[in-house]
Amino acid sequence: MTSAERQAGRVDRTTPPVGKAALIASVGGQRAFADWTNPNHRLRRLLAEFIGMAGLTFILSGAAAILARYGGHALQPWQTVLVLSVVSALWLVVAVYFLGDISAHFNPATTLAFALRRDMGWVMAGVYWAVQFAAAASGSGLARGFFGPAGNLAATMPKPGLASMTGS
Question: Has residue 32 got a pLDDT over 50?
Answer without folding.
Answer: no
